[in-house]
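Subject: Protein entry, chain in single-letter code together with its fold tokens

Category: Structural biology, sequence-to-fold work with a learned token vocabulary.

Notation: Tokens come from a learned vocabulary of local backbone shapes, not from coordinates.

Start of record: The labelled sequence and token lines come straight after this line.
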Amino acid sequence: MLDRDLAKAYGVETKALNQAVKRNIKRFEGEDYMFQLTKEECLRSQIVTLNEAQGKHLKYMPYAFTMLGTAMLSSVLRSETAIQTNRKIMRAFVAYRHLAELPIAATYLELRKEIEAVRSEMNDILADQNDINESTRAQLDAISTALAELQVKNPEEDKPRRPIGFIQPDNDKN
């Protein structure tokens, strides 16, 4: 927006607006706040809006303010409109910060709780699996011990067995 349009919006004269900017020039440094139009840009934009006689003899080229510059102007001007605008801007920033921070903090805490729940559940599963492994190992050891005892206790296996069938071998023929 041009300085003259903003001056009307804030309820001050264009001269007072430009003086306030010059007194607080450090607040407006950089093209992301404002810039001054060249004579060519000024004439091109004024052909549509001004009579031919008005735009030809400008002493100072107008300033064009960006959105950031417009907001900064509300903090350096002393009109009631500028003060109210500045308050609204500050309230909007605070409200936006609260909106931006709350969901992230809540989401972070929620995710942290979920991670802790999953971690606890995994630890329980691993502990149960470890108990099963120890129990299975103990059972396998018991089975191995029982089989070993059974093999030692059967001395009858050394005796010759009687063959199965109808025809019996003759043991007397030797």
Notes: Residues 142 and 148 are 10 Å apart (CA to CA). The first strand starts at residue 34 and ends at 36. The radius of gyration is 47 Å.
